[in-house]
Design goal:
The protein has 107 residues and is mostly helical. The protein is built from 5 helices and 2 strands. It has a two-stranded antiparallel sheet. The two termini are 23 Å apart. InterPro entries: EF-hand-dom_pair (IPR011992), EH_dom (IPR000261). It holds the Pfam family EH.
């Protein structure tokens, strides 16, 4: 479960929307569509591989973000992954839910 203290930044939400829009080939038009959109595992893997992070780190990020182990990420879960990716890219070694409470300025 995503911590109730987690609040994605506008930058994280904007990036998540761009990723979802691209993954859905531009079919997302309304705010309702964006909120209901999911990122499938194949699209997530493609995105994650662009981060230059190790498979082990990406596995931890996926585990933290994919609540319920569904095999896809909701918009909210995608913002969790984006935040953790930012922390990992800046050298944070202990990726955990506590980092979700602290916005990261590097996306």
């Amino acid at each position: 479960m995503i911590t109730s203290r987690f609040r994605p930044t506008e930058e994280e939400l904007s990036l998540a929307d761009k990723i979802l829009f691209k993954a859905h080939e531009g079919r997302l038009k309304r705010e309702d569509d964006k909120a209901a959109a999911n990122l499938d595992a194949e699209s997530a893997v493609k995105l994650f591989l662009t981060t230059q992070l190790s498979p082990q780190v990406l596995s931890v990020i996926w585990s933290e973000a994919d609540t319920g182990e569904k095999g896809w990420l909701s918009r909210q879960e995608l913002t969790v992954a984006l935040r953790l990716i930012g922390w990992a890219q800046s050298g944070e070694n202990a990726l955990n839910r506590e980092l979700l409470e602290k916005a990261h300025s590097r996306l």
